[in-house]
Amino acid sequence: MLALVTNDDGIDSPGLGVLARCAVAAGLDVLVAAPDAESSGASAALHGAQEDGRLVVEERRAPGVPDGVRSLAVAADPALIAFVSAYGAFGDVPDVLLSGVNRGPNIGNAVLHSGTVGAALSAASLGMRTLAVSLDAEDPQHWDTAEQVAAHALGWVLSAPPRRRTLNVNVPDLPRDELRGFRQAPLATFGAVHARVARGEGDDALVVRYEGTERSTEPESDAGLLAQGWATASLLIAPYADETVELPGFGADTRAGRPSDA
C-alpha cells in the first residue's frame, strides 16, 4: 500500500517528515510530493507551473523524511498534486494521502479554505483513504506530540473502508504528557485557517491567519476543545450530491429525469 505525503506549507516544512515517519512505521510505502513554495489557503485549487505542458518537479529532500523515501518538490498547489497522483503522475497510484502536519490549526467551517484539507478531500473524492493533520502553533515546538497523535489516527484511517471521507485532526502544541487526550469534535462555526495573500521579496509568501471567537464561545467544538488541550478529530465528507431532497424542476420531468412534453 502506497502513501502520498503532501502539505500546503511547502517542501521545507518539518511536518512532512512527521507524517512520512508515521506511514513508514505503519508498514506503508511512502512518497513525499509537496509544493515547492507556501500554498496556505489554496483550498482545492488546481494551480501549477508548467514547462512544455508538464508540471515542474524536482527531487528535493524534505526535513526529517526517512532514508529511502523519495521526496519531490512540485510547482503546484497541494490539491493538484493529489489530483495528478491519482492518474500516475509520480508513478504508482497512492492508496492513502496524508496531508500536513500543518503549521497552525485547521478548525471549524474554515477548513473549506485550507490547502491541507483541500488536498485530502480531493484525494478522498478520487477513492483514497485520507488524513489531514495540523499543529496549533505558528512555530510549533512539539512535533513529537503531533507524530504520536497522527500515528494513532492513521491506524483508524487504514482500518476503515474508504468512503469519500477525510479525517481532519488538530493537535495542541503541548508536550505529550500535557495532552488531555483525543476527542471527536464537531466543527466550530468559523474556526481558523491560514492563507497566503501575497508574495514578498525573494518570493516569500505573506501568510495571514483568519480566526473566529469559538475557542471561548463554543467550548465543545473542535476550536474550543483544542484550546483546552485536547487533540481533536472531525470526519469530513468529500463533495457529493444530496439526493434525499427533491428540488423543483423547470422545463423537465424531474421524476423521469428527461424533458417534459408540456
Task: Describe this protein's structure.
It is a single chain. By secondary structure, the protein is an alpha/beta fold. It has one domain: Stationary-phase Survival Protein Sure Homolog, Chain: A. 22% of the residues lie in helices and 29% in strands. It is built from 6 helices and 13 strands. The strands form 3 sheets. It has a 9-stranded mixed beta sheet with strand order 5-6-2-1-7-8-9-13-10, with helices on both faces. Helix 1 packs across helix 4 (143-159) and helix 2 runs parallel beside helix 3 (115-125). The longest helix has 17 residues, at 143-159. The protein is globular. Residues 258-262 have low confidence and may be disordered. Keywords: Cytoplasm, Hydrolase, Metal-binding, Nucleotide-binding.
List keywords for this structure.
single chain; 22% helix; SurE-like_sf; Stationary-phase Survival Protein Sure Homolog, Chain: A; alpha/beta; 13 strands; nucleotide-binding; cytoplasm; metal-binding; two-stranded antiparallel sheet; 9-stranded mixed sheet; disordered C terminus; 6 helices; SurE; 262 residues; globular; 29% strand
Q: What is the average per-residue confidence, as pLDDT, rounded to a whole number?
A: 92
Q: State the strand order across the main sheet.
A: 5-6-2-1-7-8-9-13-10
The assigned CATH architecture is 3-Layer(aba) Sandwich
| CATH H-tier superfamily | Survival protein SurE-like phosphatase/nucleotidase
Low-pLDDT segments: 258-262
Under CATH at level 1, the class stands as: Alpha Beta
Family: Belongs to the SurE nucleotidase family.
Catalytic activity: a ribonucleoside 5'-phosphate + H2O = a ribonucleoside + phosphate
Enzyme class: hydrolase
Domain Survival protein SurE-like phosphatase/nucleotidase: 4-187
